[in-house]
What does this fold into?
Amino acid sequence: MYRAVTRQIEVTVEPNFLPERSSVENRQYFWSYTIVITNTGDETVQLRTRHWIITDASGRKQEVRGEGVVGEQPVLAPGERFEYTSGVPLPTASGFMTGRYQMVNESGERFEIDVPTFSLDGPDCKRTLN
It folds into this structure.
C-alpha cells in the first residue's frame, strides 16, 4: 500500500495486476487500483479535478486530466473517507503512476493534494532493491 498526506488529507493506493484482462501476446497489461481519500482535518473539502502522469517501463508518459474521479466530485467532511477503484492499461509489464487532486474547501480556497507515486508490477517483474 502507498500513502501520502497533504493538508491533513490522506490518500492511500493499492494497485492490483489483472491477468484476466491482460494479454502478453498483444502487449496489453492491465491493473486496477483502489484509492481511499480520508479527511483527517477539521474542514470540509471537495475533490474537483484529477491529474495523472502514467509512465510505462519504456519511459513513455501519458498525462490524464479531468473532472472528479469515477464520475464523482466527493465532498468529505472531517473524519469522512471516499473509496473508489479504477484501472489503467499499459503496453509494458510494469510502470508507475503519480498524480494530484485539486480540492476546494468551504471558503472557496483551491489547493492540490498529492497522490503517492505507485508501482505497477506484472507478475513476472522482479524488484531490485539497492
